[in-house]
Amino acid sequence: MTNPSARHVIVVGAGNAALSAAIAATQAGARVTLLEKAPEAERGGNTYFTGGGFRFPYDGIDTILRVIPDLSDDELARIDVGAYPAADMRADLARVTDGLTDDRLADTLVREALPTMEWLRDSGVAWVLMYGRQANEVEGKLVFYGGLIVEAVGGGKGLSDQEFEVAQKSGVEIRYETKLMRLLLDGPAVVGVVARGPNGDEEIPADAIVLAAGGFEANAEMRTRYLGSGWDLAKVRGTRFNTGDAITAALQAG
Predict the structure, then answer these.
(1) What angle do CA 37, 152, 55 make, to 5 degrees?
(2) Are residues 241 and 230 in contact, defined by beta-carbon separation less than 8 angstroms?
(3) Binning pLDDT at 50, 70 and 90, where does residue 1 land?
(4) Using an 8 Å Cβ cutoff, are 84 and 107 in contact?
(5) Which residues pair with 135 in a beta bridge?
(6) Which residues are CB-contacts of 79 (< 8 A; sequence separation ≥ 6)?
(7) Any alpha helices (H) in 56-198, and if so which ranges?
(8) What is the pLDDT of residues 116-166, one digit of tens each?
């Protein structure tokens, strides 16, 4: 049972980042309200549309067993997961960003990736090896490659469904069809939000706000403004609800 006197945290968004934040906040003793712009049938942000794969550094099978402890002896005998050292993950981040990654954030990501996988496992998210996409058969063994070898059971949809289940069991209040309109300010402090739900606009006070709905790829005007000419014609393959509301609210709040 959630303590009504606990600090109130509002999480905006309902993808993996938002659900992870909501679960972590409840575990820390907060009362959490999660605002999901989509109806329940279309919940989950772009997480729903992903493969559910996660990248983290590992030294070999012993590390993988910390994330997937139920691998059978038969499986262990026929796989070779190799290794993906932290230095390799750090180098990959630099490579795919042409060296423009933020060093402090990249170092934090590499350092916390494995502990976060273990935390998600302990919280109730189940993982499997990516047999179909990241392994080749070599001399009778399935040899994994590329560092990205673990995915949530059920892929992106499975990750979303598992995290929603954990959040609901943890006492997170989920408000569907509820859009962030603006942030409430008291001087320089953010003290709540104005949200638009099925019953109209509502001011919701909070002790902390987590903006985890950063996508704007479903907003043709923002794509053109920030990415350039022609991006208004791009086809959106993910959620139609990522229209940049959180970015707009944050910019309006300064």
Answers:
(1) 100
(2) no
(3) low
(4) no
(5) 144
(6) 61, 129, 135, 141, 142, 143, 144
(7) 61-67, 73-77, 86-96, 103-123, 131-134, 155-169
(8) 999 999 999 999 999 988 999 999 999 999 999 999 999 999 999 999 999
